[in-house]
Amino acid sequence: MSPVSTAGEHLPGGLILVVEDDPLILEFLCEVLQEEGFLVQPQASADAASQYLELHAQKVSLLLTDITMPGKLNGADLANLFGDRWPDKPIMIMSGFETPKSAGVRHSVSFIQKPWALGQLLDCVDGALKSKRTL
């Protein structure tokens, strides 16, 4: 699947890798972020997102992932892999069941509890992108 944007590729926030196993939530998240001008890359599992990162990590400005997902990797595993390999890139985690700490995330992340309000989600994305460290 190709990155999708309604606003072109000259976006201040860069590409957001959106990882969510519920197809309705994934589609909604991507639509909302695109309407806000972000370029998004949807992935339906942490396993697929990990494979995407192997080839395209340099394009990703923010990892936005759910924690609970089927497959070999869950969102916490993906966040740890991402944070270990690309420590200068921000991570945002959402979950209705766990927290990053209870799931074993070792890195500093932005967290939003499901269910979230749209404004909360966008504020959290903005805050995560602003927290990006520069090396």
Radius of gyration based on Cα positions = 13 Å
Number of domains: 1
Number of strands: 5
Helical/strand content category = alpha/beta
The description of the largest β-sheet is: 5 strands, parallel
Word description of this protein:
- With 135 residues, this protein is an alpha/beta fold.
- 39% of the residues lie in helices and 19% in strands.
- The chain contains 5 helices and 5 strands.
- β3, α3 and β4 form a beta-alpha-beta unit.
- The radius of gyration is 13 Å and the shape is globular.
- 34% of the residues are buried.
Short description:
The protein has 135 residues and is of the alpha/beta class. Helix content is 39%, strand content 19%.
Can you lay out the helices and strands and say which pair or pack?
Blueprint: E1 15-19, H1 23-35, E2 39-43, H2 46-56, E3 60-66, H3 75-85, E4 91-95, H4 100-103, E5 110-113, H5 118-130
Parallel strand pairs: 1-2, 1-3, 3-4, 4-5
Helix pairs in contact: 2-3
Looking at this protein, list some descriptive labels.
135 residues, alpha/beta, Rossmann fold, 5 helices, globular
